[in-house]
Amino acid sequence: MPPPALQARELACMRGDDLIFDQLSLTADAGEVWQIVGANGAGKTSLLKIFAGLAPAAGGKLQWRGTAVQVGAAHLRQELCYLGHLPGVTGYLSVAENIDYLAKLSGCPQRMRPAEALLAVGLAELADIPVRRLSAGQRQRLALARFVLLDSALWIMDEPLTALDHDGQRMVEAMLADHARRGGIAIVSTHHALAVPPPHFRRFEFGARPTP
Amino acid sequence: MSNAAITAAGAVLMRDLQRAWRRRGELMQPLVFFTITVYLFPLAIGPADDTLRILLPSIVWVAVLLSMTLTLPDVFAVDHADGSLDHLALSPHPLALLVLMKAAAHWLSGAAPLLVLAGLLCAVFGLETYTLRALLLGLLLGSPVLSLIGTLASALTVGLRGGTLLLALLTLPMYIPVLIFGTSAARNAALGIPVEAEMFLLSGLSVLALTLTPWATAAALRARLG
Q: What CA–CA distance (Å, rounded) separates B152 from B163?
């Protein structure tokens, strides 16, 4: 039997001298959408950064397809699409230039042409507009266009519903459901209720910290 | 190296150059700063005095050093502020190659216009051709080192408060070897002494920076983002 796609065992995270969380275990397999829920400061963003290989864990083991994930290791990044708490788009470039640049930077194969991805997130009309003239919600849609464009197995999204209107939120849910149907894995931190159909949907709650 | 890595490297270079071109108004500021700095010296020394002609190459070198630190926040700090630095670090392509492209973009948009301007200014001040050539060749060979070291320092200060001044404090001492050989070449040229030795040393520093700093920059960037 192949090892589970993403396996975290007893992860710990420190910020300065403070312990943010420890003993965190999570196993995500193909076709699963995980919603990460927790109070402010529980360490959701830190956890997602550890999963993405951006930050090292203070303890525990993290494996992607049976191989340990370390900061700077390439095997996870070839299959990863990541959205941090900032959209990560460049104000001085146009919408089309941004998506083109981000697609070339990523190692993932493209599922469609960039223009089609912009159409899917409702930005086709704005392709030639500089991003600095877009609203926060439109920038978020541009950041999400990468997930439609690129064929990546692991999606990591930190608060993807930020600044999105009602339609945009439905769009993210549809994207997640479609990703799960195609056998992808998504790890999403959000405070909003996510309407993703049950067979794929999992919920992970940061437990209360054990008191000594 | 794979084709995809080369495409990604080209995309990083093009994107930074495109961004620089779109905000060329802001990029004019270091050029104006450079011109004003150089022009302050004749006012302070007195234009009739021969001292100026002797000091001019050194003044230009110091002004180039100062002006080049002004554009360093564009290398990583701006990308960190809008979140696009994460995408650079998460690219599966070699990060050392990608940051080398960032340094190249910094040189092309921040240093190359300065070199042209330095040549024009020195011609206006009536610097002899031989000295002028030694000065410009020295700047051409030495300025890549400044961009590469500046890129490394930018990576070390990603996400720190007080970035711009800290960057200058960190980079200027590391610019000293380039400054010494560059000004020595121009001084020797003014005395009619051959300047090959300085040029070889500056080339050597360039090659050394080119081979070592991209790896250090990549490692520093990963450490700062973690």
A: 13
**Residue labelled with tokens 């110091």:** B62
pLDDT tens-place string over residues B88-106: 999 999 999 999 999 999 9
**B173 vs chain A: nearest CA distance in angstroms?**
30
Tokens of A49: 């950064």
By the CB < 8 Å criterion, does A93 face chain B? Answer: yes
Distance of CA A100 to the CA centre of its chain: 19
Q: Where residue A210 falls among pLDDT bands split at 50, 70, 90?
A: very low
Beta-strand relationship, A185-189 and A33-37: parallel
The string over B116-146, giving b where at least 16 C-beta atoms fall within 10 Å of a residue's C-beta and e elsewhere, is ebbbebbeebebeeebbebbbbbbbbbbbbb
Residue B225 Cα, gap to closest chain A Cα (Å): 7
Q: In what order do the strands lie in the sheet with A185-189?
A: A80-83, A154-158, A185-189, A33-37, A201-205
At A126-138, the pLDDT tens digits run 999 999 999 999 9
Neighbours of B17 (CB within 10 A): 15
B140 Cβ contact list (under 8 Å, min separation 6) = B115
Which chain A residue has the Cα nearest residue B18? A93
Domain boundaries, chain B: 3-225
CA B129/CA B123 separation, integer angstroms: 8
- Nearest CB to B82: which of A53, A90, A130? A90
Q: Which two tokens stand for residue B101?
A: 């492209």
Q: pTM higher than 0.80 for the full model?
A: yes
DSSP B194: -
A29-40 confidence digits (pLDDT tens): 888 999 998 888
Alpha carbons B58 and B39: distance in angstroms, whole number: 13
Residue of A nearest to B82 (CA): A88
Residue A70: predicted pLDDT: 80
Q: How confident is the model at residue B1 (pLDDT cuts 50, 70, 90)?
A: low
Contact between A190 and A83 (Cβ < 8 Å): no
Chain CA centroid to CA B166, Å: 16
CA distance A198 to chain B (A): 31
Tokens encoding A79? 């299959």
